[in-house]
Amino acid sequence: MTDPIYDSYDANLARSDTKRYGIKVARSLSDMMKIVAIRSAVFISEQDCPYDEEFDGNDFCSTHLIGYVGNEPVACLRARFFADFAKLERLAVRHDYRRSRMSFKLVKAGIELARVKGYKQIYGHAQDRLVSFWSTFGARPMEGRETPLVFSDFSYTEMLLEADPHPDAITLESDPYLLIRPEGKWHETGVLEQSANRDVTSPLRSVSTRQ
């Protein structure tokens, strides 16, 4: 079984193939440091975005994807999930890798991740100059939006992608063990279901309740 695009980074394979593309979900402080470094280089340094506007208070309630070339982190994408739509945002690719296919692979990974989580509407804000880029994935400018969308000194276009339902989307009918696997690792056995191989002891039953 081929790993999904949003979990295609393998450090061992990347070590021997410095041109290999890989993507993973951020799960650690080290991963978040990579994201901060990439976005600081792209948005704060290159685009003069103020720090408080770039790091806007939404990073710790989001899912982040990191794109690698070899073992070098070169790009990132943030996803936030609402009741009936997902929002992809903060796509950043380091300058030296902008002619690669990383931006396309990372957006495809974000769309796939959202579809597996059951989302069929994927929303985003595209800088006006990048509308055609987002259109390549099937996103279209939203109709009936007359008020200009401007923030951090750029003008944006609201984009909406109507995605087909994913055949393996996670639902309430999914295996309960799948629901407690790490984000983006739903295709692999998780540590909590491995713990089910131990005998059930319910250790709190043996704790005395006497004061």
Describe this structure in words.
The protein is of the alpha+beta class. Strand 3 (72-81) and strand 4 form a beta hairpin. The mean pLDDT is 93. The protein is globular. The chain starts with 10 loop residues before the first helix and ends in a 17-residue tail after the last helix. The chain has one domain: Aminopeptidase, CATH 3.40.630.30. The chain has helices at 11-16, 29-46, 51-54, 102-116, 131-135, 191-194; strands spanning 21-25, 63-69, 72-81, 86-93, 121-127, 140-141, 149-151, 154-162. Strands 1, 2, 3, 4, 5, 6, 7 and 8 form an eight-stranded mixed sheet that branches.
Q: Could you give a short account of the major beta sheet?
A: 8 strands, mixed
Would you give the CATH topology? Aminopeptidase
Structural class: alpha+beta
CATH architecture: 3-Layer(aba) Sandwich
Order of helices and strands: HEHHEEEHEHEEEH
Radius of gyration, in angstroms, nearest whole number: 20 Å
Task: Report the top-level CATH class.
Answer: Alpha Beta
The average pLDDT score comes to 93
Inertia-based shape: globular
How much strand? 15-25%
Please count the helical segments. Answer: 6
- In CATH terms, the superfamily is Gcn5-related N-acetyltransferase (GNAT)
Annotation, overall tally of beta strands = 8
What is the terminal separation in angstroms?
55 Å
Question: Any low-confidence stretches, pLDDT <50, length ≥5?
Answer: none
State the helical fraction: 10-25%
Domain count: the total is 1
